């Protein structure tokens, strides 16, 4: 004997059936997957992205300006003696402008450290949705920062050397 078959129910309404068809598929109700069915959590505070943007601006603009000023002063201080420098002379040429050399070195290292920090924090802010817009801007500004610093350094050197021209 075979088991009795349930009556066939058409998915289309007829005169004796309800007007809504039965669902053709019901997903399994497993509590391990309940979290995936919930709505995504709202984005967090945008402070992380804003701090990354501020760091990127300080690293790019502030360090580049300090580097340009210091290299301009170095070029103006060393420039008049460029004709008398021998190929065997060493770093003693920079002795009269050693304070500006320190400022240039500090500006370069501080700009590098702040730029890397801003780049990493901008990536974290973008991924974690905690200030995505400012985080993306921080990534772009921190990535362009070395080129801006190189341009500012060249400009500072050119201005410093042109100040000594007769």
Question: What does this protein look like?
Answer:
With 166 residues, the protein is mainly alpha-helical. It has a domain at 52-81 and 113-166. Helices cover 56% and strands 0% of the residues.
Question: What attributes does this structure have?
Answer:
166 residues, mainly alpha
Task: Give the SSE layout.
Blueprint: H1 47-78, H2 98-127, H3 132-162
Quick structural gist:
The chain is an all-alpha fold and 166 residues long. Helix content is 56%, strand content 0%.
**Which stretches are poorly predicted, pLDDT < 50 over at least 5 residues?**
none
| Element string (H = helix, E = strand) | HHH
- Structural Rg: 33 Å
Structural class: mainly alpha
Sketch the major β-sheet: none
């Amino acid at each position: 004997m075979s088991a009795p078959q349930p009556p066939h129910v058409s998915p289309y309404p007829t005169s004796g059936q309800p007007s809504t068809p039965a669902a053709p598929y019901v997903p399994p109700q497993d509590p391990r997957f309940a979290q995936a069915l919930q709505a995504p959590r709202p984005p967090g505070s945008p402070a992380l992205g804003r701090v990354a943007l501020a760091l990127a601006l300080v690293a790019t603009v502030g360090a580049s300006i300090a580097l340009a000023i210091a290299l301009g002063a170095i070029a103006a201080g060393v420039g008049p003696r460029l004709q008398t420098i021998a190929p065997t002379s060493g770093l003693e040429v920079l002795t009269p402008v050693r304070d500006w050399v320190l400022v240039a070195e500090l500006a370069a290292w501080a700009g590098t450290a702040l730029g890397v920090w801003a780049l990493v924090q901008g990536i974290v802010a973008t991924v974690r949705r905690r200030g995505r817009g400012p985080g993306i801007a921080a990534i772009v500004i921190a990535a362009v920062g070395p080129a801006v610093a190189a341009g500012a350094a060249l400009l500072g050197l050119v201005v410093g050397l042109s100040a000594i021209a007769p």
